[in-house]
Structures are given as structure tokens and as C-alpha cells.
Amino acid sequence: MKKHTLLLSVLAMAIIAAATVTAAQMARKPSADGAEVYFIAPTDGETVSQTFTVRFGLKGMGIAPAGVDHPNTGHHHLLIDVDQLPAFDAPLPATDQIRHFGAGQTETELTLSPGTHTLQLVFADYLHTPHEAPVVSEKITVTVK
Which of 59, 93, 111, 135 could form a disulfide with 123 if both were Cys (CB 3.0 to 4.6 A apart)? Predict the structure, then answer.
């Protein structure tokens, strides 16, 4: 019984240790001076078909996949029909409205219902946390036919 209890205690401590993120890991990474993220396509006000290509642009920083911690790098997150930006002091959640491109992708095929939609990009670090001095695009509007 004691061995069983000891084993469970060690297992619980290992799980807690693995799930605990240190303060150093949660500190937001700085963005490069003058860094910008933007849409190459579509353009603001464009009318698009239900499935269309979205191309992400980046200036002043580099692309690295999620989990790879190099200075002045990160990966794209696409916000779809998000009225208010999420908190930038924690990793961005992965939802239907906040799409993660953690493999370092710089474009995607997007399918949206007919109507008016907004798109916005947020560039974030290896842990999906926006940089200190967030790198955020202008919000654009597309009309899906």
C-alpha cells in the first residue's frame, strides 16, 4: 500500500511539474523595433469567394514554428470576426475565431459563409503569447459572395 501511495504521489508531482510554467517562460518576448504584420491578400474591402487564400506578410522579424524559441521570431495567428482583441499577457486560445499557424505557415485557404467578415493578424512567440510591443495588423473587412 505504501509503494502504491508513494508511486501516486511521485506521479502527481511529475504531472504538476510538467504543467507548471515558470515565470521566465511566461515573460513576454520583445518584438523587433519596427516589426509589422499585414495582409498580402486579400485586401481591405475586397469581395472574395467562399473559399479564398489568405497570405500573411511580415516585416522586421522571422518565422519560427511554435515551440522553437529564437529571438525576434514567432508565428501567425488569424483572428476572424473578433470584435475585441484577446488578452496579450497569456497564450492566445485556439478557437474557430483564432486560428493558429504554429508550423510557420504564411498562407492558408479559408472558407467563410457569405456576408461581411473581419480579419486581423497577431504575431506571437513560441508559446503563442503576443510579443511585448504587440505585432498586430490592421483589421480588414472582406465580403464573401
Answer: 135
